[in-house]
Design goal:
This protein starts with a strand and ends with a helix. Strand 6 (about 175), helix 9 (about 180-190) and strand 7 (about 195) form a beta-alpha-beta unit. The chain has helices at about 15-30, 50-60, 75-80, 85-90, 95-105, 120-125, 140-150, 150-170, 180-190, 200-205, 230-250, 270, 285-290, 310-315, 325-330, 345-355, 360-375, 380-390, and strands at about 1-5, 35-40, 65, 110-115, 130-135, 175, 195, 220-230, 255-265, 280, 295-300, 320-325, 340. Strands 3-2-1-4-5-6-7 form a seven-stranded parallel β-sheet, with helices on both faces. A six-stranded parallel β-sheet has the order 10-9-8-11-12-13, with helices on both faces. Helix 11 (about 230-250) packs across helix 16. The model has no long low-confidence stretch (mean pLDDT about 90). The chain is α/β, with parallel strands linked by helices.
Length: about 400
């Protein structure tokens, strides 16, 4: 099938989870045998070398790039749907011209739009009678409030995002929701068809093999990973771990553990007061090797939306994971069987303490791996994409 992909950001190189999802999504379409063309919005910091590298990596035709313009026009101010500037970018005449050009040259049979806020591009596709799929990475209206708080500007932003998400649900596209919770949101909002398509990097993570538990784990190696602590919910979780969980762990485990914190930009006030058994390792260049030395993933989820890779990567690898119920986002991991769920600091500590037993770590990790293989495999995700395109 000939598929035109419209994306709000050139997905190369894959760094954050959103970029990885776009990159591996395009790779997946190519691996399934589809012909792919890309029209991408491009930020000023992205270079031509990155474009060429992505084309080479995925063996796809030249990518049509359209710069961001950040227009502030009367039509935007008068239309409540366009209060979301990210959505208004997809009404840009230069973008529409680029889409029209690719349509006439390539004659796509389907259009794949990355990002719920790109719904104007989905409307362009529908106007041209094309099968249209929209990939939604998170419900941004909820994400803004849960991550940044209920200030007046955030409420205005969230309302604008919600209006766009409702419109997306009701215009007749197929929605590839990233979690069961997100699928349910779009179905309640009027979506005709919404299927769950998990993080598309997960098949590659599964391919790295199952984590081998260390029998002699003394001290226990525990890790918390946040991609960057400039993200509010990552910083909140790191603060919770360092200031509330670690002091109780020191009592429960009598300091027979080490906690490793990965991710960029941990603020100095936290960094300068780390307890002696906590090590900030920052960016890890060889993350698979780092994980092979770990015993437990500690991943409290205090904000954000969508599918947090810091939770689902260890689950997919079979690393016993202690997290928050909200972080599971409706996926079928069962508390006490394939994951350990907690809310308060003492509950996290109690859960970690039970994983001091080698057999218990193997039991939890193996069950998580088995569930992950059944729902995150390359075949399972490929079947969902095929159903969306059928």
């Amino acid at each position: 099938m000939r598929i035109l992909v419209i994306t709000p950001k050139l997905p190369y190189p894959p760094s954050g989870a959103d970029e990885q999802d776009r990159y591996f999504g395009i790779q997946q379409l190519v691996e399934l045998g589809h012909q792919v063309r890309i029209v991408a919005k491009v930020a000023t910091h992205q270079t031509r070398d990155q474009v060429v590298a992505m084309q080479s990596a995925l063996s796809i035709a030249p990518i049509r790039l359209v710069p961001y313009v950040h227009r502030l026009r009367l039509t935007r101010l008068l239309n409540p749907y366009y209060l979301d500037g990210a959505a208004f970018e997809f009404t840009d005449p230069k973008l529409v011209n680029a889409l029209d050009g690719v349509r006439s040259e390539f004659d796509p049979e389907a259009v794949w739009v990355d990002g719920s806020y790109a719904w104007p591009a989905a409307e362009w596709s529908l106007r041209n009678g094309l099968k249209t799929i929209v990939r939604s990475v998170n419900v941004e209206s909820y994400h803004i409030l849960s991550d940044e708080g209920y200030s007046f500007p955030n409420i205005v932003r969230a309302v604008a995002k919600f209006a766009g998400e409702r419109r997306l649900a009701q215009i007749g596209v197929r929605i590839a929701a990233i979690t069961p919770v997100e699928r349910d949101f779009y179905e309640r909002s009027g979506a005709r068809e919404a299927l769950v398509l998990p993080l598309r990097a997960l098949p590659s993570i599964l391919a790295r093999g199952q984590h081998k538990a260390r029998r002699e784990a003394s001290p226990l190696n525990i890790f918390y990973s946040g991609s960057t602590y400039s993200v509010a919910h990552n910083l909140a979780a790191a603060t919770f771990v360092i200031r509330e969980i670690v002091p109780l762990l020191r009592v429960a485990l009598q300091d027979k553990f080490r906690l490793y914190i990965t991710g960029a930009k941990l603020p100095e006030p936290l960094l300068s007061r780390l307890p002696p058994m906590v090590e900030y390792v920052g960016y890890v260049s060889d993350y698979p090797t780092f994980l092979s030395r770990m015993d437990i993933a500690l991943a409290p989820s205090l904000g954000g939306a969508g599918m947090q890779q810091k939770i689902f990567e260890p689950l997919a690898l079979g690393i016993p994971t202690v997290t928050s119920a909200r972080g599971i986002a409706g996926y079928p991991f069962v508390n006490g069987a394939s994951v350990l769920l907690a809310t308060e600091a003492d509950e996290f500590v109690s859960a970690i303490a039970t994983l001091g037993d080698f057999e218990r770590r193997v039991e939890i990790g193996t069950a998580a791996r088995q569930i992950s293989e059944s729902i995150f495999s390359r075949r399972a995700l490929g079947d969902t994409v095929t159903a969306l395109l059928s």
